[in-house]
Amino acid sequence: xxxxxxxxxxxxxxxxxxxxxxxxxxxxxxxxxxxxxxxxxxxxxxxxxxxxxxxxxxxxxxxxxxxxxxxxxxxxxxxxxxxxxxxxxxxxxxxxxxxxxxxxxxxxxxxxxxxxxxxxxxxxxxxxxxxxxxxxxxxxxxxxxxxxxxxxxxxxxxxxxxxxxxxxxxxxxxxxxxxxxxxxxxxxxxxxxxxxxxxxxxxxxxxxxxxxxxxxxxxxxxxxxxxxxxxxxxxxxxxxxxxxxxxxxxxxxxxxxxxxxxxxxxxxxxxxxxxxxxxxxxxxxxxxxxxx
Length: 292
Description:
The chain folds into 3 domains: about 1-85, Arc Repressor Mutant, subunit A, CATH 1.10.10; about 90-160 and about 265-290, D-Maltodextrin-Binding Protein, domain 2 (3-Layer(aba) Sandwich); about 160-260, D-Maltodextrin-Binding Protein, domain 2 (3-Layer(aba) Sandwich). Helices cover about 40% and strands about 25% of the residues. The chain has helices at about 1-15, 15-20, 25-40, 55-85, 105-115, 125-135, 195-205, 220-230, 275-285, 290; strands at about 45-50, 50-55, 90-95, 120-125, 140-145, 155-165, 180, 190, 215-220, 235-240, 250-255, 260-265. Strands 3, 4, 5, 6, 7, 10, 11 and 12 form an 8-stranded mixed beta sheet that branches. Strands 1-2 form a two-stranded antiparallel sheet. Helix 7 links the parallel strand 8 and strand 9 (about 215-220). It is rod-shaped, with a radius of gyration of 31 Å. The chain starts with a helix and ends with a helix.
């Protein structure tokens, strides 16, 4: 890059002495750098005739390319300096789609207060999809609730929540303090396609025949599942802190009680940017229970 900078200075000044002064370098050093650049490009870039300096045909051909290269390098340097000083604070955050916004928005507000130039890109998806995005380098950090993670990922638990069963007002579950999982076998079950309950349930080692579900409806959309529950079409399992439609009733599941752990997930060994480091530190000290 020094060679290119010296070359462009000579192009402007058409004088090696003035170009050296402009670049704050001794003229012999500038001349050697130009010679090295000429060797790399395979020909003379300047023709010196007494006190006159002219661009050769090769020099004129190379000038726009080297100007573009130098400008791109300067732009990259400026962006890197802005990034390091948090003048720009990009963050690609993944949040599992079954984590309600109410749990996270105050954390984002706190992050914005720390990083006025925050540029947040929020991705919501199933836990397994977010894991794949983390592994592919598409996310900086994520909030994921799964029983286990690949070795390349660091998963630091931040909060836990029980699973509940959601049902409409007037349902028989309303008279129960808690609902055994086996009771669901007598009900029409609405399957939340993105739900991680089966994975946490399986992680308990519970025999599968203790709960058989009559799945009649399934949807990826939480609002559709909850609307169908309220209309009396069935019941469904869901995390304790999932935002609920007004009127929807819930009871904690027991026998077994199923709990999911939500973790702050990063890639092992990957260096944190200032924005990621700030988010991770905030998430560690964040009062998750207060937002539930």
